[in-house]
Design brief:
With about 290 residues, the chain is of the alpha/beta class. Helices cover about 40% and strands about 15% of the residues. The N and C termini lie far apart (about 40 Å). Bound molecules: nicotinamide-adenine-dinucleotide.
Length: about 290
Amino acid sequence: MLLDGKQVSQVVKTTLKTQTDELLQRGKRAPHLAAVLVGNDGASETYVANKVKSCAEIGFRSTLIRLDGDTSEQTLLEQIRILNMDEAIDGILVQLPLPKQISEQRIIEAISPAKDVDGFSPVSVGKLVQGLETFVPATPFGMMLLLEHYNIDTKGKHAVVIGRSNIVGRPMSILLSSNLPKGNCTVTICHSHTHNLAEICREADIIVAALGRPGFVTGDMVKEGAVVLDVGITRVKDDTAKSGFRLKGDVNFEEVSAKAAAITPVPGGVGPMTIVGLMKNTLDAYRRKLDT
Ligand code: NAD
């Protein structure tokens, strides 16, 4: 079975649009996301453009703040301070990665926890670990929505998460092990120092591949009937493509789809679900603030 993130994300967007329309009908203002883009990295440009476009589709307001690639950390901190104080802004997103002269950690920590719709701040992560209501990072959130949509059985299953980044692997391992409708897994988290990774994967009922190495997970690493979520997005040079590149996931789709019970494609799997995760967080930020 194909876990069709493109289609499911449309379903979630339709629900979000209905909820937004209803707010407007009640005379409320629309939720408002501010996105900050520093520099002009090609992939970041695409991600931010998709987020802004999705806001428009749902009926959210969005403001895109573009800063030069040589912007100082101080200037970006000042921009965040302004957005934190702006009553009309519900969610703040700073597109990562940031240029070398800026500490990502300092920027993440500067965003008000009430507007941290990416869920990257230590406050949000602490709450996630403790099972408290918070903003769940968009990519793991999107994957949990996908598991819910297809009603994938996770209880008591062995989930192997490859990658331990703060934005994907680590929070996904926490969610899958939490006492949630699509949690309660026994989780193994693998990283670049893991021994016998292939062996560990072969024991997995659920594999989340989030390492950024195209085609890393091959057919021989996957148990028959496993559920495979492919987070990887790598631009691989391809002269036959109009853009000059093709997007490749971390999973060898051809080999693994022959064995998996369910699998996400790249593109059209986890990527679109990430966007709706962010949109849901933005609506939540709005609701918590305005208590509507
Ligand atoms: P990252 O570089 O921050 O982390 C990669 C992780 O993989 C690290 O924890 C590292 O230990 C582990 N790793 C690297 N090589 C490994 C190996 N050979 N064996 C085992 N573990 C290994 O990356 P990230 O930000 O978590 O992103 C991972 C991938 O997911 C990238 O391709 C990125 O573009 C993609 N991504 C996609 C979405 C989406 O919406 N679909 C969102 C975020 C990231």
